[in-house]
Each structure stands twice: as structure tokens, then as C-alpha cells.
Design goal:
alpha/beta; about 300 residues; Rossmann fold
């Protein structure tokens, strides 16, 4: 199946160049173009391309605002930003809005082909994984009777391969994460999770400390978990640098971490920056891990 593209740029020459590079290079088919953000929003919702190549700066509605509005209206495509500016803050905002790749103007045929080829590879892997998941789901339904006779895996058995994938299976904080997951599965049936402080202190009590020391031990638990999640972020970012299309990177990077944190960590590793103090979204990480564990438990029921 051919990849479909939408192009939004107020410069007619840029639109034509991008369309020729995409179609003459066999990268896919351009199904819609627009010369403004507001027009682009309308055309993209009508044509629903797989990938949107969009200019950052446009007079009526810039690229970031257009992406945000498209997401609010349910558009699911991938985004590639093009721009002349090198303002790190603006580029950072673009990544936060959902941009996955960035192309510098003036447009260079080799760079565009390289970036869009990478987008194409990523899209094919996503489709392949989706097809596998659908096949496994159908197979599971066909064998409901025999599956129900199998012994269900416990929380720790489900967690083990996930923690191994993200490179933290031996970390001391991973044991705290396991304790939290077991507590949530046993005592918390909702989709959200309680306040983090409450979870840390619950784990502290599992360590059988005196009630007077629970708060202190809870802070120690927090620090261990933060260090462990930072280690996982570094591991996943390293995989992404080696192979952006690696299935582990594809799965864990967008689900478990903030996109800008992954990008920053990749730049930090690639350019040998001095590591910054661990900035990770602990709540998001634990929430996603909990949902993945409960989803696997339900599928094995």
C-alpha cells in the first residue's frame, strides 16, 4: 500500500518541489495541498493522508496551531515540519505538538528523501506490528477454551519482559515499580492511579518500616524510581539513535515517555552533552505500565 501525503506551505514553489520529490522518488502519493493553515486543516480532514508535511511559519495560522487543531478534531496522521528558522524554543514546541521529523529550508532533495524514507519505514513497521496484533487477537479468540485453562501469569511475570525491554530489569527501583504494580492490581480497579506520594508510602510500608519513618522511606522510594525511569529513558533513546525504526523504540518511546524528553536525551547522547538532572514524567510512566499490565492480564483471562 502506497503512503499518502498532504502538503501545507504558503510558498507555491516549495509545495511543487515537495510534491515532485515525493512522487518522482516513489515515496508515495500527494493527495492534498494547501497554501495556509486554515485551508490545510480543511483539506487534510477531507483527504486524511498518512503523513502531513507542514510549514512552521504561515501568515494566517502557523503549523503548530494547525497540528493542535487537527489533533483536537481526531486527525491521526504523522507530521513532518519544514522551516527556515533555527529557534530551538519554537522547534521544541513543534515536537511537543506532535511533530516527529524536521526538515530545514531551503528544501534539499537529498534531505527530504532521507527524512521521508525514514517516515515510510516507520509507517511500514507500525502497519506490520498492527497486522500481527490483529492476527494474534483473532487467534486468541479462536482458542478461548484452551486459553482459559492456562495458568494466568502474575504481575511480576508480566512485568519481567517489559522491564527487560527497557533496560531496567536489575535496577533497585524496578523492585519498587513491581511493588506499586502489584498494589494497584490488587487494590485499585480504576483506570487512573492514586497520587504518587501515596504510592511511594504504600511501598515503604511493604518494607515494614516504622510508621514514623514511612515518609522518609517514601522519599527514598521516589528517588530510586526516578533514577530507574531515567535509566530506561537513556536505554530507549540509545536504541532510537542506533535504529529509529526499532520496534522497541517504536513501542516504548511514545507510550512511556514525553516526546521532548526522548528527543533531548537522544541529542544529549549523540552530541556528548553533559547529562542533565533526570527529568522524567513518573506519573505517565507508571500509568502506562499499569494499563499495559492490566491489559495483558485481561487478555490472558
Amino acid at each position: 500500500m502506497m503512503l499518502s501525503f498532504g502538503i501545507v506551505d504558503d510558498d507555491a514553489v516549495s509545495r511543487l518541489m515537495l510534491q515532485r520529490i515525493i512522487e518522482n522518488g516513489g515515496l508515495g502519493e500527494v493527495v492534498g495541498t494547501a497554501d495556509s493553515g486554515s485551508e490545510g486543516e480543511k483539506i487534510l480532514l477531507e483527504t486524511t493522508p498518512d503523513v502531513v508535511v507542514i510549514d512552521l511559519l504561515m501568515p494566517d495560522q502557523d503549523g503548530i496551531e494547525t497540528i493542535i487543531r487537527l489533533k483536537e478534531r481526531g486527525f491521526q496522521g504523522k507530521y513532518v515540519m519544514i522551516s527556515q528558522i533555527e529557534n530551538k524554543e519554537m522547534i521544541g514546541k513543534a515536537y511537543q505538538a506532535g511533530v516527529e521529523f524536521y526538515i530545514q529550508k531551503p528544501i534539499n532533495k537529498i534531505e527530504v528523501e532521507a527524512v521521508l524514507s525514514k517516515v515510510h519505514e516507520q509507517w511500514k513497521i507500525s502497519r506490520y506490528l498492527q497486522e500481527i496484533q490483529e492476527s494474534l487477537t483473532k487467534l486468541s479468540l479462536l482458542h478461548t477454551g484452551s486459553e482459559s485453562m492456562r495458568k494466568k501469569r502474575g504481575v511480576r511475570e508480566i512485568l519481567q519482559p517489559i522491564l527487560m525491554d527497557i533496560g531496567i530489569v536489575g535496577d533497585s527501583g524496578s523492585r519498587d515499580v513491581m511493588d506499586i504494580m502489584e498494589h494497584l492490581v490488587r487494590h485499585h480497579k480504576g483506570e487512573g492511579i492514586p497520587p504518587l506520594k501515596e504510592l511511594y508510602e504504600t511501598v515503604a510500608r511493604c518494607h515494614k518500616v516504622n510508621e514514623a519513618d514511612v515518609e522518609k522511606e517514601g522519599k527514598a522510594v521516589e528517588q530510586r524510581i526516578r533514577r530507574t525511569i531515567s535509566t530506561a529513558l537513556t536505554h530507549i533513546a540509545s536504541i532510537g539513535l542506533t535504529d529509529y525504526g526499532n520496534p522497541k523504540f517504536e513501542h516504548y518511546a511514545p507510550l512511556y515517555f514525553e516526546f521532548q524528553d526522548v528527543r533531548m536525551k537522544m541529542k544529549e547522547i549523540d552530541e556528548n552533552w553533559k547529562p542533565e538532572k533526570g527529568k522524567v514524567n513518573v506519573k505517565k510512566f507508571l500509568q502506562v505500565l499499569y494499563l499495559e499490565v492490566t491489559d495483558k492480564m485481561r487478555s490472558e483471562h
